[in-house]
């Protein structure tokens, strides 16, 4: 059988691309080596409750327009199941073993918009005084910054970067503020800073259309439901999706699948590089009896600073505090997930319990169930002359970025087809 498009990889990127291309009338075949689709967006059962094993939320930037996660969920009939995190419970930062404080609720990646005395626990008097200089510094200061860290240091000082921004960037982007390009951190931040001349004012402008907590959302029942809906809708529109099929060779005019040669235009939706141990993340999900956690003593979760020596986790999400649907499913039990750099340790569950007790400030009475999952994350590494490619290596980290790029590439191919050119005729293109 000849197919227009042969998609190699059935994670979210491959599924989004395959669905959009099938809707546009392309013949599509997709092959996933694993027995299930979804990649890092997948289901796990913990203490009898279905939870996300990978991504449990997504960025809502772009609203529900074309190429957004919200728009995609709407097309798939899941708009009514989109949920926001519980209100009134900001995340915290554990800076040192004996020092923790809440993040500013109306900030962006830890950058505050209101520089009042509520920031004293985080910044101290000297740090807060330096941050307040943002309001009076000339607008040229920081205008040529390339990274988020460079911009924040120029406007608000080192303390804001170290205490507030670095833990958030580490938890969200798996990097440091000084390595994160401004446009990757927030596509509108540079323009708003140029317009307002103040970093706090720029963040406030961005957040004015995005109230506290609304920068991220989840799906009632789990983000993994997106995968089930994508598989069903892509198949309904003619895409042929095969799990447990290993692609052993990729050439310009086709692929080899389990010894069979198929002709078509390959679209790569799997990692092209060997796993980088430096980007490996282990996620431990715990379900416990811990009555002291019931009132969410540290909000929806805790980001861990590099000086918190006793804690090995880099972040904790208090699932039963963050998502009302998880609280309903768990009853009196508490559910948390902790993320760690690197591979799972032999004592992963016990270490996670100890870390959770430290971060939430109350003991665990009983560990009821747990899971340990290790993921190899891809960084943006595909050059402009790469073959048709979707996924984190081309799009960057995060469900929002992956969906936008996969949708964009499928749309670009459709435009080429409508113009009379063979899809992929250039052989090298961006999504």
Automatic annotation (TrEMBL):
Signal peptide annotation: none
SUPFAM superfamilies in the cross-refs: FAD/NAD(P)-binding domain
InterPro entries in UniProt: Amino_oxidase (IPR002937), FAD/NAD-bd_sf (IPR036188), Zeta_carotene_desat/Oxidored (IPR050464)
Domain of life: Bacteria
Any matching Pfam family: Amino_oxidase
Location of the Amine oxidase domain: 12-257
PANTHER family in UniProt: PROTOPORPHYRINOGEN OXIDASE
Protein name: FAD-dependent oxidoreductase
Organism encoding this protein: Microbacterium invictum
